[in-house]
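FAQ: What does the model actually see?

It sees only this:
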Amino acid sequence: MQKPEWTKLESYVRYPESTMEVRSEDFCAEMLRRRTVRQFSSEPVSRSVIENCLRAAASAPSGANLQPWHFVVVGDPETRKQIRNAAEKEEHEFYHHRASPEWLEALAPLGTDEHKPYLERAPFLIVIFSRSYTLRADGTRLKHYYVNESVGIATGILITAIHHAGLVSLTHTPSPMGFLNRILGRPKEERPYLILVTGYPEKTAVIPNIPKKTLDEVVTFV
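And it is asked to produce this:
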């Protein structure tokens, strides 16, 4: 592999500590407003906004900089309908046959079931695929490293960017998700990671009143 040229870090901006305090507090407050939504409006969303969010996501760090992700943005209504039908079929099996009693008990406060109308109603589904390898021009494979970690980081940035833009999202992971390769025509080296439902919230949207853990519960300073 050809070695990259090295250049001086010029994009970094160092702020005074007082500014850092304000910026970190403001960002925290903004992210604490982020909520997962299940009632989506059918109102159109600008494609350029989605493209900007995806550019941000694609800037994520990755193992050996191999960027093992691919994003498929589904706006076509018929394709969204196909995805909904296939997902609901798998979700019916999950809720009625596959899920353990403990899992169903954990999901009960959220009121979820096999019906997923938002997959058809929201203007965009962003289907995220992880890539275990890339095919070189000579047909050999270039293995990717830390795939799940890398795609997870990119997905987190994408969720953050969507919220920052003024939209809402929902992570959806029907299992298994192989139908997405078939419907979207993706190659076998790509594995569906999740569906990110994206759009505006319905005016009558509601969210469960559930808390996040406190900082003391999730953080240890050593």
